[in-house]
Design brief:
Blueprint: H1 9-26, H2 35-48, H3 54-63, H4 65-75, H5 86-101, E1 108-112, H6 118-130, E2 137-142, H7 145-153, E3 155-156, H8 166-172, E4 173-176, E5 179-182, H9 184-187, E6 190-194, E7 206-211, H10 220-233, E8 234-242, H11 251-254, E9 256-260, E10 263-266
Parallel strand pairs: 1-2, 1-7, 2-6, 7-8
Antiparallel strand pairs: 3-5, 4-5, 8-10, 9-10
Helix pairs in contact: 1-3, 3-4
């Protein structure tokens, strides 16, 4: 595979035309992703389809809805598990959520880029454990409609649930063939919705936004704009929780404070 920096003018024009066509069709701006990584990922899709150009590949995904869904699925990162990085979720359980629950009302929480639903269901378990019976607003969004349909089912493999505490397994999961299913009463507490983080409007007044392992392929400019938009969507004192590879180095300039690594509190 040729690298991005090695492309000739014809190959670069082919790719740039593809980027424009995808944007017109979906509103997804591939220019906001790091060019080298995105090019490599997309060219791999062209090769898997046994095609020789992005022009041919777009013709395929534009006429075949199944291929379009496959393109979206492969373009995004849909690897997740419940309680991924358990030590951070323990900090969420012991420090972050108790402080937010002291507000004395149901919380507004957003899992942005929720993938297969592991993250919002983890949050739902923690909230039910800390405040049984309280119905919080728990929004879970992703750009991939196919993956959202899977998330709504609440089905996970043994590997997906390997970090779930035993007490939570017995209360919130039940066997479903060779998989495990989130109990219906918990699934009903999550609102799943299609959403493009780089283009669509954001809801406001969230107490907690969780966006982990989503922005690693974004350009630095796109990241800065996204973190600023998250800040604007939080209430004062609200918290943004990011992934272990997504530390925000200019968080004070945005208006955050960080008292726990990878948790950023809106202070103004």
């Amino acid at each position: 595979m040729q690298e991005w920096t090695e492309l000739n003018s014809t190959q670069r024009a082919d790719y740039e035309s593809f980027v424009q066509q995808v944007y017109k069709k979906s509103g997804i701006d591939l220019n906001l992703y790091k060019s080298q990584q995105m090019y490599r990922r997309l060219w791999g899709m062209v090769e898997r389809a046994n095609l020789r150009s992005f022009t041919d590949y777009f013709a395929l995904i534009n006429r075949d809805s199944t291929e379009w869904a496959t393109f979206l699925d492969r373009m995004t990162i849909n690897v997740s598990e419940l309680f991924r990085n358990p030590e951070k979720w323990e900090e969420m359980r012991l420090k972050v959520l108790p402080a937010l629950l002291q507000r004395g009302r149901p919380l507004r929480i957003w899992s942005a880029g929720c993938s297969i639903g592991a993250e919002p269901y983890t949050l739902a378990m923690l909230l039910d454990d800390l405040k049984p019976g309280v119905r919080h607003y728990l929004l879970a969004t992703d750009i991939d409609q196919k993956i959202l349909e899977r998330a709504r089912q609440g089905l996970f493999t043994e590997t997906d649930i390997r970090s779930v505490p035993a007490s939570y397994r017995s209360r919130y999961l039940r066997a479903a063939g060779s998989d495990f299913e989130v109990v219906p009463e918990l699934r009903q507490r999550v609102t799943f919705r299609k959403h493009n983080l780089l283009a669509d409007p954001f809801e406001k007044d969230f107490d907690l936004i969780v966006c982990r392992n989503v922005v690693i392929y974004f350009t630095e400019e796109a990241k800065d704009k996204l973190f600023a938009r998250f800040h604007a969507s939080l209430t004062p004192g609200g918290v943004l929780f990011v992934g272990g590879t997504e530390r925000i180095f200019n968080y004070r300039e945005i208006g955050f404070e960080s008292r726990i690594p990878f948790f950023y509190e809106r202070v103004h």
